[in-house]
Amino acid sequence: MARYADSLLADGEAISFRTRQHWLATIIDARYPWLIFAVSVIVLILSSNLDGGVRTVVGYVVLAGLIVSIAWLAKVYWNWLSEDYLVTNRRVIKVEGIINKRSADSSLEKINDAVLEQNLIGRMLNYGDLDILTAADVAVDRYRMLNRAPEFKKTMLNKKHELEGEFGRPFPAPPLRTTAPAPSAPAAAPAPAAPPPRQMSADEVTSALSSLADLRDRGAISPEEYEAKKAELLGRL
To answer: CA 207 → CA 185, 204, 211, distances in Å?
Structure first.
């Protein structure tokens, strides 16, 4: 079944890694409803020795405690199941919420680094806290008790590197008009011929153009740079 986060993907955007908080986070978040549930069960067992009237009152209190704790636990675990943390070939996406959804994303080209913190238990159970930093070393998002946090960070930085490798190089400038050398100047040695550009498949060109258009729409490149790169990519077919 398709998830809500899948509907947020742009054309040509593909999911590279998907996770949520570690299951241990649900135990920490649900510590109070678990406590209410445990106390209610203990009181229910002890109330069997009470008089009829008192036992009835205690029974109602215990029933209320059980209902509240079970409803609270259901909300905590449902909220955990609704989480979706994604790394795509363009950005990092965080989706939370049961009915009212909240989504936040960070573009890969704006991410400078990520700080991962793991304690001893986190290394044993493979979770950690991850801070995503911008170029100004400001944390734009924090993932608490992220499941498989090292793999999430590694995938994010690898995808950032791939994006920079495809579009991070300066765009080629138009060739300068050559002028005839002065009569008295010796002729310059001819420059070595540049190697022909690598041929690309139609799928590769389509994916590259989609990512390039996304950069243009966000203002990372100018329309002129987009058209120049587009012409170069189409020439590789």
So the answer is: 49, 5, 6
Per-residue model confidence as pLDDT tens digits over 59-90: 899 999 999 999 999 999 999 999 999 999 99
Predicted TM-score (pTM) above 0.70: no
Cα torsion 228, 233, 236, 237 to 10°: value is -130
- Residues linked to residue 15 through DSSP beta bridges, in sequence order: 88
Quote the pLDDT of residue 178: 46
What is the Cα 18 distance to its own chain's centre? Answer: 8
* Residue among 203, 199, 223, 201 nearest 213 (CA): 223
pLDDT, one tens digit per residue, over 143-168 is 999 999 999 999 999 998 888 876 55
Question: What distance lies between CA 185 and its chain's CA centroid?
Answer: 59
**CA distances, 139 to each of 106, 115, 184 (Å):** 11, 9, 62
List 113's β-bridge partners, or say none.
133
